[in-house]
Design brief:
270 residues; alpha+beta; L-fuculose-1-phosphate Aldolase; nine-stranded mixed sheet; 11 helices; 9 strands; 39% helix; binds 1,3-dihydroxyacetonephosphate; binds zinc ion
């Protein structure tokens, strides 16, 4: 059996959580990540027949039966993952009943997966339908995106258009736009279902006055989506109160879409 601490997927989780903490996206225990792992790869590091304990998830995710995930722990700090991954992360497999998680590794202190597991697993189910390669769901609390939700109308067409208009690269990176949920209580099945509903058409979902969700096939795609939204939101927050001397027009956006052959939300332009 290979050493789990040398597993590339574990190193990826350690690297990305540290980076996100340093960027200020994940204060205290803020944020969570779930990452679908390949059973054959995990089998090189862990005995897949050795279930440490079972943890009820509180919802039915039968479509994910047998899938293995590495997931950040609830109440755990991103800044600590790198120093003690076995306490702050867990590897779980969704059991046959669809409502139980089998712990294969981690949560060493008796902990459990993120309280946002409903939003993660329900989103995975929807994103896998759109793209079977989708492996990552990432949630965090980046400053400018969050600040923007305090002052900008919580409307997905308007937020997407505002962010597309902040910098040339926005529409290139997220031509599919951004879903927006109103403020809701977090950590339950209701916000999970609402997020997953948005994930049917978006890889990005803003939770008003809370944070953002991103979905992608790998860490780079997912992180890159959130990073680009955050950069555009920063431009907005730095300039929204100032007179505009230059602005990206709808025609500019159409020209970009043509030049980059983008499958974009045409209904988000006037
Ligand atoms: P967890 O510590 O349960 O992952 O919750 C953090 C968070 O960001 C809630 O939305
Ligand atoms: Zn959160």
């Amino acid at each position: 059996m290979k050493d789990i601490f040398e597993a590339p997927f574990l190193k990826e989780m350690m690297k990305i959580t540290s980076l996100m903490y340093k960027l200020g996206w994940d204060e205290r225990n803020g944020g969570n990540i779930s990452y679908i792992l390949d059973e054959n790869v995990v089998g090189e590091y862990l005995d897949l027949n050795n279930v440490i304990r079972t943890i009820p998830t509180g919802f039915d995710a039968k479509e994910l039966t047998g899938r293995i995930f590495i997931v950040t722990g609830t109440g755990k700090y991103f800044k600590n993952v790198k120093h003690d991954p076995e306490t702050n992360l867990g590897i779980i497999r969704i059991a046959k009943d669809g409502t139980t998680a089998e712990l294969l590794w981690g949560y060493k202190d008796g902990g459990r997966f993120t309280s946002e597991l409903p939003a993660h697993l329900m989103s995975h189910i929807e994103r896998l339908k759109v793209n079977p390669e989708n492996r990552i769901i990432m949630h965090c609390h980046p400053d400018y995106t969050l600040a923007m939700t305090q002052v900008h109308e919580a409307d997905e067409k308007k937020i997407t258009r505002t962010l597309w208009g902040q910098m040339t690269e926005s529409i290139v990176v997220f031509p599919d736009g951004i879903g927006v949920l109103p403020w809701m209580v977090c950590g339950n099945n209701e916000i999970g279902r609402a997020t997953a509903e948005k994930m049917k058409q978006y890889r990005l979902v803003i939770w008003t006055l809370h944070g953002i969700y991103g979905a992608g096939k790998d860490m780079d795609e997912t992180f890159g989506l959130i990073e680009t939204v955050e950069k555009a939101a920063k431009q907005y927050m730095l300039t929204a109160h100032l007179p505009k001397a230059n602005a990206i027009t709808d025609d500019n956006l159409r020209d970009l879409a043509k030049a980059f052959n983008l499958d974009y939300r045409k209904d988000f332009l006037d």
